[in-house]
Specification:
The complex is a heterotrimer. Chain A is of the alpha/beta class. Chain A contains 13 helices and seven strands. The radius of gyration of chain A is 19 Å and the shape is globular. Chain A starts with 9 loop residues before the first helix and ends in an 8-residue tail after the last helix. In chain B, 59% of the residues are buried. The model of chain B has no long low-confidence stretch (mean pLDDT 96). Chains in contact: A-B, B-C.
Chain lengths: 327, 334, 372
């Protein structure tokens, strides 16, 4: 018998690595393409935050719903949204997951339970409560996750949602992805409580804080609270303390960060590096397993970009469609 | 069987019958049951003005009180709709839309389009509109224009009990987000309503009166005033067409244009403030599409560019009157 | 002398009419009036119609004003011989009171429409008049018992008259257990049982006529005689454009020309009539009912029911409007030509498919003659 001290088996761990690597390469590649001027509008990159998305989404099934932030690519990929479709969407192509009508900030796939990245911070929290309400009515054990950043954690919608979820005992998890910065503003300045655990208890629900760059820490904490929600135990708040490698948006000069800060976190707080170290040290996956995965992911991203670039843009006829189901 | 009931009873009946027919129709709002968690009666209020009284007894947890958190519960209704439920959320007074407008106009209205067609958001937001009960500036507005402006929303505003029931049932069965406006001053108005369930399609204006000399277009509480004005004018030998728009988005311009092409004279009546309103919208569309038929300038009868005043004398001056409407028609004959 | 003064009253068309608006006098004061002359155009919230003279005389007074609403049975005018003095007419007018306007109004206390249950389905019906001789009126496709609004009271003068809303129609339940002519015939037979009427003169209009004939097969003891008005079941042809139009159209604009096919005088299809049909079509369940029934009516060749009905030997009166564009008047003419002694046939000019409305007085008169 293999001696596997980790909570997931070999295949599952490889899947987790693949998810995180896909997110990483997707975002790194977007950074490059954006700087070339090929991507319209805004993008907000998730690189560095992969462990949060993967640690949580590994517990979810397709029917569970998530409501994401403006920084939604990582959530999408971890929830199973098609990577090529995402890339095409970000390039504004008709073959995109939203037919080119949404773009990076509104990327969604309801079939996969991904209720959308949101351009309005905090707006996903009530929507996730709604998904949880539907699950409660149907009594099917489904749950919903509302992702917010440290910035949006101050938005009225988020705070109202915490209260609503508690009084209605909704199967919804509020995940605060605290990467320390709300655009350029530090969490230390903007958030009144010292710990999100206090904010959770202020709204009558349990709260947990974990190191969001440690996949296994996220996985364990998330597993517990998701199980509780599925069983009718109500909402919880999970704070993932993490870092983002890139700016708030692409084009952000990030002068609000300390000099050398980004280099430092890339070197010392890279969740992919720590995951790799853990799984190889435990002897469950080998370096060559991981490298093979890396190559496959890079191939997928390459293909996604070239397909997206070659794909057709929407036409005038597409401008007026899908405003209503029928009018 | 058709019998006489009030506007508010017609709405109650629509909700009741739809909740019975379809268990995915869930109804929520502040004090909509009234008394939740309180030591006295269940269903103590049944809504601020009693519109939803009795529904809790019949439908139990299909109807629920919400905390004072419009963006959370309106947003939850929207999120639940995106997951296949058919929620009906009450925004107690349309004047409160400010605290939850994002969920309505940036989320619900835009899901279908932004997500490339895949989303459906069959949510109904019922809300009280209009002046006349001395509720003052923050509880008396007619904000239909703001919702009408947003692509992706539908806006409905019935003027009588029969229309209220049919249009609310239609709204609940519709697969797009609908803002269902209930004029608070019409709640007591009575009319003939069938006991059975029925629908009235959107984008079908109702022609309440045929005349031929002038066209009066109105919606909501103004419809009654338009009819009164038409009676007065009939005695002066001026016979008016009176058109009740019923739905503002989608809107039935065909019926309006057909009438104006015949009469050549148009008066649009709108209880809202005068800038950027349903009145300006209808007027502009008619001016553009039926210009050659017009024999006179288009007249609009609206509230003034002020908040709704409190004192009864002032509020009565604020609300457009039948006499003002008749005067406007006379002006088109000068 | 007072017997020579004949009041012209606001008629009561249908069970719920309480008032009507006088639109126009069609004759002037002083005119010589004969029976059947059209005197006044009247409009209710359901329909427009014409008051016809039921007597001969001189039109001495036109009291009603145009564009004015009057309660049912109001005095609208006075007919009298020229020998009657003006003073007597004045006295008559002053003394006239609308009957049944008091508190213990027996007519008001009888419910206008009644409801019962047949095979678990709610049925609305009207029950007017009294006596052992019962007439049952059956409306047609998409109609309801108010199709008989100009006929009910005239017939109820001499007979007990029942009229029901067929399943899926009017205010009866909106499902049809057996959506076929024979299913409906059985249902009507059961209805008669439920209301305790062993047999009746069955008068059917359009599809109702087909049902009446089918009752001869399903429940022959309940059929005393047959009145067939513009009836289905006498021949294969039926205006499928009309049927499909009735089923498919969703808007006022589209429905109006469809309904106009029912009448010789298209102007009878006013806004209120179209509204009334639309309101019915929009009730839950109606669309499904109409689709099923119209498919039945249009399916292949229509079963010819008349042979069996005629063979039964029961007395039959066939009435038709000569301008009927839904079911050809030729079918009536064919029966007339067949020379069958148990079959009487009469057709009326200036009337289409809704002859019982457009030539109401004549249809009533002919029916009463037949029923005696």
């Amino acid at each position: 018998m293999n001696d596997n001290p980790l909570p997931l088996n070999r295949d599952e761990l490889l899947q987790v690595y693949q998810t995180m690597r896909t997110i990483r390469e997707f975002e790194e590649r977007l950074h490059v393409e954006f700087s070339r001027g090929d991507i319209p509008g805004f993008v907000h990159l998730y690189a560095g935050e992969e462990a949060s998305a993967a640690g949580i989404m590994t517990h979810l099934r397709q029917e569970d719903r998530i409501a994401s932030t403006h920084r939604g690519h990582g959530h999408c990929i971890a929830k199973g949204v098609d990577v090529k479709g995402m890339m095409a969407e970000i390039f504004g192509k008709k073959s995109g997951v939203c037919a080119g009508k949404g773009g990076s900030m509104h990327i969604a796939d309801l079939d996969k339970g991904m209720m959308g990245a949101n351009g309005i911070l905090g707006a996903g929290a009530p929507l996730a409560c709604g998904a949880a309400l539907a699950a409660k009515y149907r009594d099917n054990g489904d749950i919903a996750i509302s992702f917010v950043g440290d910035g949006a954690s101050n938005q009225g919608t988020f705070l109202e949602s915490l209260n609503l979820a508690s009084i209605w005992n909704l199967p919804v998890i509020f995940v605060v992805e605290n990467n320390g910065y709300a655009e350029s503003t530090s969490v230390d300045w903007a958030v009144a409580c010292d710990s999100y655990v206090d904010r959770a208890s202020g709204f009558g629900m349990p709260g947990v804080t974990v190191d969001g760059t440690d996949f296994f820490a996220v996985y364990e904490a998330a597993g517990e609270i998701i199980r509780r929600a599925r069983e009718g135990g109500g909402p919880s708040l999970l704070e993932c303390k993490m870092i983002r490698f890139f700016g708030h948006f692409e084009g952000d000069a990030q002068t609000y960060r300390a000099s050398g800060e980004v280099d430092d976190i890339r070197a010392n707080r890279d969740c992919l590096k720590s995951f790799s170290k853990t799984v190889t040290t435990a002897g469950v996956l080998s370096q060559s397993d991981l490298e093979a995965c890396d190559a496959a992911v890079l191939g997928l991203i390459d293909e996604a970009v070239s397909t997206a670039k070659a794909a057709k843009l929407p036409t005038k006829a597409d401008l007026l469609t899908d405003v209503y189901v029928n009018y | 069987m058709a019998r006489i009931i009030s506007f508010k009873e017609a709405i109650n009946e629509a909700l009741d019958q739809e909740m019975t027919r379809d268990s995915s129709v869930i109804v929520m709002g502040e004090d909509i049951v009234g008394g939740t968690g309180s030591p006295g009666e269940d269903d103590a209020w049944g809504g601020a003005l009693g519109v939803t009284k009795g529904l809790y007894g019949k439908h139990g947890n299909q109807i629920m009180d919400t905390p004072l958190s419009e963006s959370a519960y309106v947003g939850a209704a929207i999120g639940a709709a995106a997951c296949g439920m058919r929620p009906v959320a009450e925004l107690m007074f349309v004047d409160f839309m400010g605290v939850c407008f994002d969920q309505i106009y940036n989320q619900a209205a835009k899901f279908k389009y932004m997500f490339g067609g895949k989303a459906e958001t069959p949510v109904v937001i019922r809300t009280m509109v209009g002046a006349g009960i001395r509720a003052a500036a923050q509880h008396s507005q007619m904000l239909t224009a703001i919702f009408t402006h947003i692509p992706g929303l539908k806006v409905v505003c019935p003027s009588n009990p029969y229309d209220a029931k049919g249009l609310l049932i239609q709204s609940i069965r519709d697969n797009d987000p609908v803002i269902f406006c209930e004029h608070k001053s019409l709640y007591g108005v009575e009319g003939e309503v069938s006991e059975e369930s029925y629908v009235i399609p959107f984008a079908e204006a109702n022609v309440l009166r045929d005349g031929g000399d002038a066209t009066i277009v109105a919606y909501g509480m103004m419809v009654g005033k338009a009819l009164d004005a038409a009676e007065t004018l009939a005695k002066e030998g001026v016979e008016c067409d009176v058109i009740d728009l019923r739905t503002l988005s989608p809107i039935d311009m065909e019926t309006v244009l057909e009438s104006v092409e015949n009469t050549g004279r148009l008066v649009v009546v709108d209880e809202a403030n005068p800038r950027c309103s349903i009145a300006t919208d209808v007027s502009a569309q008619v001016a553009q599409q039926a210009f050659k038929s017009l024999k006179a300038q288009i007249e609009m009868v609206t509230a003034p560019h002020t908040p709704v005043p409190f004192s009864p004398t002032l509020e009565d001056l604020y609300i457009p009157s039948a006499e003002q409407i008749a005067d406007a028609v006379r002006k088109t004959h000068n | 002398m007072k017997q020579n003064i004949i009041p012209i009253l606001m008629p009561k068309w249908g069970l719920t009419m309480e008032e009507g608006q006088v639109n126009e006098w069609l004759v002037i004061e002083g005119a010589e009036i004969s029976v059947g002359d059209e005197i006044i155009e009247v409009e209710t919230d359901k329909i427009s119609g014409v008051v016809e003279a039921t007597d001969t005389g001189l039109l001495r007074r036109c009291l009603a004003k145009n564009a004015t609403i009057y309660p049912v049975k109001s005095l609208l005018g006075v007919l009298a011989d020229s020998s009657v003095l003006d003073a007597e007419i004045e006295t008559f007018i002053e003394a006239y009171k609308i009957p049944d306007s008091g508190e213990d109004d027996t007519e008001e206390s009888i419910p206008q429409y009644m409801f019962t249950e047949v095979d678990g389905l709610r049925v609305r019906y009207a029950d007017r008049g009294s006596g052992d001789s019962v007439v049952l009126l059956l409306h047609g496709f998409g109609g309801d018992l108010d199709n008989w609004l100009f006929n009910l009271d005239a017939l109820a003068d001499k007979h007990r008259v029942l009229a029901l809303d067929l399943p899926g129609h009017g205010e009866s339940g909106k499902t049809i257990p057996e959506p076929s002519i024979s299913g409906l015939a059985k249902f009507v037979g059961k209805f008669l049982e439920v209301v305790g009427v062993p047999s009746a003169h069955i008068v059917g209009h359009s599809m109702g006529g087909g049902i009446a004939m089918q009752m001869v097969t399903e429940c022959p003891e309940s059929v005393k005689s047959l009145g067939l008005i513009c009836s289905s079941g006498l021949g294969p042809e039926i205006n499928s454009d009309y049927l499909q139009g009735f089923v498919e159209t969703q808007s006022r604009r589209e429905l109006k020309p469809v309904l106009q096919q029912l009448f010789a005088d298209e102007s009878l299809v006013n806004r209120q009539l179209v509204e009334g049909v639309l309101k019915y079509k929009r009730l839950d369940g109606v669309d499904a009912v109409l689709r099923t029934l119209s498919a039945t009516l249009l399916s292949g060749t229509q079963t010819i029911l008349s042979d069996k009905a005629i063979d039964s030997g029961k007395a039959i009166l066939v009435i038709w409007g000569e301008q009927d564009s839904i079911i050809p008047v030729a079918y009536a003419q064919k029966l007339a030509d067949s020379g069958n002694s148990s079959v009487e046939v009469e057709t009326f000019d200036s009337a289409g498919h809704m002859v019982q409305m457009e030539r109401a007085n004549d249809v009533n008169r002919r029916l009463l003659e037949f029923l005696c």
